[in-house]
Each structure stands twice: as C-alpha cells, then as structure tokens.
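User: Predict the structure for this protein chain, please.
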Amino acid sequence: MKILAAMSGGVDSAVAAARAVEAGHEVVGVHLALSRMPGTLRTGSRGCCTIEDSNDAFRACDTLGIPFYVWDFSDRFKADVVDNFVEEYEAGRTPNPCLRCNEKIKFEALLDRAIALGFDAVVTGHYASVLRDADGRVELHRAADDAKDQSYVLGVLREDQLEHCWFPLADTPSKALVRAEAEERGLGVAAKPDSHDICFIPDGDTRGWLAERIELTPGRIVDQDGTDLGEHQGAHAFTVGQRKGLSIGHPAPDGKPRYVLQVRPKENRVVVGPGELLEVDRLVGIRPSHAGAPHPAVATGEWIEALVQVRAHAEPVPARVRWSERDGAPAVEAELAGSLRGVAPGQSMVLYVGTRVLGQATIASAHSSAWNPEALDAAV
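Assistant: Here is the predicted structure, written as structure tokens:
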C-alpha cells in the first residue's frame, strides 16, 4: 500500500512510520506546520508542531530512508482550531482543542489531501485500534495500553475516515516498549518527552492567553441561590470546577470553599457554590457523530447501557444512553449510574460499549439532581 505517515516529531509517530516501512509499504513522511510563528521553539514537554519538532521528524524520516515533506496547514489550523477555541470561551464553553484538531486537521484536511494524492491510508502514532465487525465494517476500539489509550481524542472520526486510518501502536503493551524500539532502530527521538497541554499555548497560561484575545467585560459573581457576591473582570477567565482566583473577598457562611458551578455569558454572570453541587448525573450532548456504523439504537431512540468518558484520561462512567433530538437537531442523552464532577458545556463526551467507541457529542448541558439552575433563573 501507499502510506502517508503523519510525523509529529515525537517517538510514537516515528515508530509507527518505522513499522509501516518494515511491513513493506511505500511510505512517505509528512509533518504538519500548524504554527503561525515558524520560529517557535519547544519548551521541554510543552508545545508541539514547532520548528524543533519538524527537524526531529525530518531526522526520523532520514533514518528510515523515506521521503519527507512539510505541509503548511497553519491557516486552516488557526481558523478551525485556534479561532474556534476563542469563540467557544467567549460563549462560556470549555472546548477540547485536541479533538477539534483531530477532527478538522489531522483526519480531515490531511486525510482528504492524502487520498487526493493517491495514498491508501494515513499512519499516525495514536494509541487506538481499528477493527472490523462481522460484516466487515470498521470500528474504533481502545488500545491495548489503557494508560496511553487515545481513543477518546479520536472519537470524532467517522466511518469513512477510519477506513483510511492505521494505528500501528494499537497492540503495544506500554510506551516503554515503544521507546525501547525507537532506541533499537536508531531513532533520535527515543527519549524525547511527550508533549502535553495546549500546543498553541506552550507556557500553559490559558487565562492570560485568552485575556489578550477576548475583551474583558466586568460582571457579577452570584451564588447558587442568586445572592450577589462580588464582581468579576471577565467571565471567560473562569471554568467550571475552578476554586482559586474567585476574588470574592469573604468566605461562605459554612466556611467551605466555593467553586465555579456555571459560566453564563449571556448574563455575564459567574455562578459559584459548594463543591458537592459540581457532581452531575445527567448530560445532554449535541452535534453527535459515529465512529463506525451507527449503533442500532440511533434509529430507534431506545436506551442502551454504555460507558461515558468526558476527559482524555478520565475513568469512564456507566450510563443509560439514547440518541434523541434537541431543538430539532440530533442529540444524545446520558443518565449516569454514578456521577461526574465539574463537567462543563463544550467538553466532549465519548461513548463506549466495552472497548468499542460508538461516537461522541459536544456537551450542551450538565445536570445535577442536587441543584436546579431554574431556581437561579427565577432569582436573577
């Protein structure tokens, strides 16, 4: 097969490309230039897609003896990921830019161009499995190494995209073995730190980064009953579950810490309250997609037993799930058997049955049986 290896400059993508070469395929390496500042340098394990990463990707391809190219997707990355990130925060939501990047850049823009150029598949260093059901249709599953499993951030992939995806690291039991293999193959990235945090905010200061891009508008901080507690300088600077930086100036009557329960951009209010009110047991998601053939319950609307995961490395929670409608558009409802803490609109909920990823949806609302926000609506 003719394979395009997406080379991030890290050890995982380098080993994935090496395995594709070893399997006898015609492999071409490509690094995606996503930064609008081509001189950007990497800081330890912070950031990715920098000029240093591009150089590491080139050296890995040189070692493997395969062609190497750099594709400039910086304009599309800015529009589809960076600008979207700002817009979501302006709307009071907490987005996941990694899912957005996988959806719009790595497995849409990249894959579309690869297919147009005659490639059969795209190889990446993600830890996830693409399997086939009894009818031969593709399914997305968790990787063998639960600690490194990345199926959550791939939950946005559609069936037609999975048909052209290959994840060679799917069955590797641990990251340590991948590093050892890279060392044996003479790949210079064997000991390179994993990247983390948001790649376009390499210093990790999301609040400061947003403050330069979103106009600060003072508003009120209220408690869960609507009682006015003070003023904030910009609602976008707060996220659900936040404890520090509230600047209320006086403690709660019971002396316990307050947490951000809701960010309400239309009213420019931040709602705070006790930690126990962060526990939610019902989620509603919008813009659902299916990772493979849709589950039969999508058509019937019946409840099914599934697992719900709301963060990349969080424990999944058992739930009853059904596909329905919200304001005339497709939606997903999940009634949790337990509870999840600090879930914010804008996060993605990925649905599983066993190891299989059914798909995902963007959380529109999270509900707690311990607190009814409608009472707050009446109070304010």
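DSSP finds nine helices and 17 strands in the chain.
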